[in-house]
C-alpha cells in the first residue's frame, strides 16, 4: 500500500496539479498578507488622525462642539469599527483565498489532463512498440510541443518498422544468394566423397569458382555495410578521371570482344581533376560497366561519357541494352534488387554492384542516378565535385 501511494504521488498529473495548487495558494496568501497588512496600517493611521482632530476640536465653542459631537464618532466607536472592518476584511480574504485555491485545483486538474493525457498515450504506444508491434501509432492533434512529440514518435515508429522490414528482406536475400553456391559446393563434394564424380581438375575448378563467388559476395556485403554506417575509409587525392577511365576500359577489352560490344570514351575538353579516392572510384566505374555488359546484347554499344563544369564532373555509363521500366528506376540502387527477377546470380550478378556504387559515391560527397528507355538502353551517372585549388 505504501509503494502504491508513493507511485501515485510520483505521477506527472499529481505533480502538475500540486504545482498549480501550490502556486495559487502562495500567490493568494501573499496578496492577502500584503493587503491585510497595508489595510491595517492605513486604517490605524486614519483612526489616529480622526482622534487627533477630535482632541483639537474638543475645546471649541459649544455650537461647534455639538456639531462635532453629532458628526464624529468617539474614540471607542472608532476602535470598534476598526476591529469589525479588519475582521470582515480578513474573513473576505480567507473566503477569496479558499475559493481561489479550489478554482486553481479544478483548473489545474483540467489543464493537467490536457497535458498528461497525450503523453500517457505516447507512453502506452511506446510500451506496445517495445513488445514488437511496430505498427503502433499515436493520434496527433494541434501544433504545440506535444503534437511535435507525437509526430516525432510516429516518424520513429515508421523508421523502425521500415528498418525491420529491410533487415528481414536483407536476411532473406543473403540466404537466397548463399543457397546456390553452397548447394553446388555441397553436392559436388558429396558426389566426390561417394565416388560418383571424380576429383579431377574440371570438378575441382567448379568448386573453386563457387568459393570465389562466395568470397566476392561476402566482401561486397562487408564493403556495403561499412559504407552505409560511414565507417569505410576514403583516401581522396587529385584524380584524373579520364586516365582512370582509359585504364578501366583497357581491362574490359577482352570482354567487349567476346560479346562483340563497342566500348568507347567520350569527353569534353579540359575535364577537371576531382578530389576522389581512385581505388573506390575505380570500383564504382567497374561496377557500372559490369552492369552494362550484363544487360547489353551482342553487337551493342557501351559508352563512358565525361562532362564537367565549374562545380564538378559528371560520369555516365551509357548502354544500348534492354532498358529499365520506369517503375523499377527508383529501386535500381537497392541492394539485391534486379530488374529481371528471373535472373540468377550467375547471369544477373549479386544485385550489390549498383548499391555499392551509390554508397561509394555518396561517401565522397557526390550523387548517383539512373535514366532509361525500355528496349533502347540505360544511362547510369554520378556527379562528384571538382578538386579544390
Description:
63% of the residues lie in helices and 11% in strands. It contains 11 helices and 7 strands. Helix 2 (12-56) packs antiparallel against helix 4 (75-130), helix 4 (75-130) runs parallel beside helix 5 and helix 6 (201-228) packs parallel to helix 11 (353-362). With 389 residues, it is α+β, with helices and mostly antiparallel strands. The protein has helices spanning 2-9, 12-56, 62-71, 75-130, 145-193, 201-228, 241-251, 253-258, 278-295, 345-348, 353-362; strands spanning 237-239, 262-267, 274-276, 301-308, 312-319, 367-373, 377-385. A hairpin with a 3-residue loop joins strand 6 (367-373) and strand 7.
How are the strands of the largest sheet arranged?
2-4-5-7-6
| Shape designation | elongated
Helix content: 55-70%
Following the backbone from N to C, one meets helices and strands in this order, namely HHHHHHEHHEEHEEHHEE
Q: How much of the sequence is in beta strands?
A: 5-15%
The helix count comes to 11
- Give the N-terminus to C-terminus distance in angstroms: 74 Å
- Biggest sheet descriptor: 5 strands, mixed
Mean pLDDT: 78
Radius of gyration, taken over Cα atoms and rounded to an integer in Å: 43 Å
Structural class: alpha+beta
Strand runs, count:
7
Low-confidence stretches: 1-6, 59-73, 342-348
